Amino acid sequence: MVGGKGIIGRFLVILVTVALVVPASPAPAEAQERVQRRNLLDMLFGGGRRYIDPEPSIIDVQPRRQRQLRQQQPRPRGRAPAARAAAPRPAAPAAPPKPEPVAKLENARQILVVGDFLAGGLGDELSTAFEESPGVVVAERSNGSSGLVRQDYYNWPEQLPTLIDEVKPALVVVMIGANDRQQMKTADARLDFPSDGWFTEYERRIRELGTIVTSRKIPLLWVGLPSFQSPSLMRDAVKLNGLYRTEVAELGGEFVDIWDGFVDEEGRFIVTGSDMNGQQARLRGSDGINFTKAGKRKLAFYVEKYARRHLGEMASPELVKLDASNLPELQVLPPSPTTAVPVQPISLMDPELDGGTELLGASPTPPPIVETPRDMLVKRGELPPAPKGRIDDYQRSTTQ
Length: 400
Prior knowledge:
The chain is of the alpha/beta class. It contains 11 helices and 9 strands. The strands form 3 sheets. A 5-stranded parallel beta sheet has the order 2-1-3-6-7, sandwiched between helices. The protein has a two-stranded antiparallel sheet with strand order 4-5. Strands 8-9 form a two-stranded antiparallel sheet. Helix 5 (117-129) crosses helix 9 (293-311) and helix 6 (156-167) packs parallel to helix 7. The longest helix has 21 residues, at 231-251. It is flat. The N and C termini lie far apart (200 Å). 19% of the residues are buried. Residues 62-102, 354-400 are annotated as: Disordered. It holds the Pfam family DUF459. GO terms for molecular function: hydrolase activity, acting on ester bonds. This is SGNH hydrolase-type esterase domain-containing protein.
């Protein structure tokens, strides 16, 4: 018995020690129902209710502070969520409406532009230059593949008189020659470029075309060729510009030199340069021949200055139609009762010519002022005349 009691006592001591060292801990998930577990005593001796351990559940083992730090960290950049990607983009601001074109006057002066494909771009931008001038209309009648050489394709000396009679221009602008570096056919021979015979015949054709304009007493502006990217084409353009300048000057026209506007300081061809406003822009196309829109506008700017000088006041943007339709209404005021006195205008230079001797409202001449003896003495230091017979009557003494 003693030995049995000792074993039981030791067992109880061990049991109490284990109970103190390993206390029962609550379930980590507070929202779950508490479930009592079997202890060591139940496992050794049984008794009481038997409890079944619940199925293991997923337990969040991360501390709460660590979760909060992860939530505060910014998300890595990546693809936008589907909701954001599907959201419509804000509409771009609408461009300001283009102002209405200025109505042209019935008697507006016409500018006729003729020539090849370079003249076509010149005419378009010259219309832009005068779009706010009601007294000027630009009529562009170019033919892109034409020239002075291939008259079998398009004969300008035959077509230009018809165009002049149709448009009735106040100014004719010619820009031609970019297609003329080729063989020329005449009635007697075929002239190769650039032979002497070719240049002689070309000079004659320049004079023929220019005379059609100047013989009608119409101002003529002949626009020269620009620089080109091809060295041979650029060299020939210089030669042709010399012919245009000489022949047009003899006819009484004006040669518009645009060469410096499309070369650099050393005279070399440029693709990008200053536009008409002095800003850097692309002026020429990738082929080294054609112009961009900025280049055409700069080309028209050279011609615009000459045209405004010839057209005078009609080229002004401030010109309005002066007729009875836009004169201000005259307001007739009733007569005022205080202005019943008749008004007689007189000349300020010579009143005697219109019968008047004084201005309106002039006061009559005041009567002469009689000075007292005191005023005479104080102002001029003079004494009044002495009475006759008195000793200081010097006049009596001199007469005696």
